[in-house]
Amino acid sequence: MKVGTKSVIFGAHSFLIHPFFVAAAWWKLYGFPWDPRLWAACFFHDIGYLGKPNMDSIEGERHVLLGGRFMGWVCGAKWRDFMLCHSRHWAKRLSKPYSKLCVADKLAFVMTPAWLYLPMARASGELAEYMHVASARQSGGQFSNFELSLLKCRNPEVWLEGLKSYTRRWIEKHRDGCADHWTVIRSTEPQPEACDGGGY
Fold it and tell me: Which of 124, 159, 180, 185 registers the highest number of CB atoms within 10 A of its CB?
């Protein structure tokens, strides 16, 4: 079973757990998600990880496509773009704004307690990959010296706190939709689908 599939079933993007944290994060940021399309977005935005051999390389980055196509088919182009641009890297590579779902997704990560996140990410194999590529994430990403020191640690709990600290600051800076100058494009392969931001 590939790491992306394991992530969606029982890992950090578990279909049974992660969507509820995203919904809770949306509630905290923007108010209760009354629109059923928002709930669909919470549940299907990461479904494209199914079958992916990695989480952070180009195959993993393309996970946005499946959920975007699904929402586009069911709810229209605005919601397709809302889903596609929940990835700040995907939106950045297209020179498009990230959607509010991106901010809620980041806050969901912060809100997920370490005692839950780490066992899930370890069981799926994601944790090893995330920690392995941590050095690449640190390049030009507006990390503080304190966060860099935590991210260099091989202790998962310490490493996770460093990443959460950075993510909290990104959320604080970008929750209202300002331009994202922090995110560094990790890969250069051109993408077949664009988005117009489509923020809900």
Answer: 124
What CA–CA distances, in Å, run from 67 to 25, 75, 87, 138?
19, 12, 12, 28
Q: Which of 55, 56, 44, 42 is nearest to 11 (CA)?
A: 55
pLDDT in tens, 38-78: 999 999 999 999 999 999 888 999 999 999 999 999 999 99
For the chain, the domain total comes to 1
Alpha helices in 33-144 (DSSP H): 36-44, 58-61, 64-75, 77-84, 88-93, 100-111, 114-124, 126-132, 134-137
Q: Is residue 183 a part of any domain in this protein?
A: no
Identify the band that residue 138 occupies on the pLDDT scale cut at 50, 70 and 90.
low
**Residue 193 is assigned to a structural domain of this protein:** no
Q: Is residue 134 part of a domain?
A: yes
**Residue numbers of the domain that contains 74:** 3-174
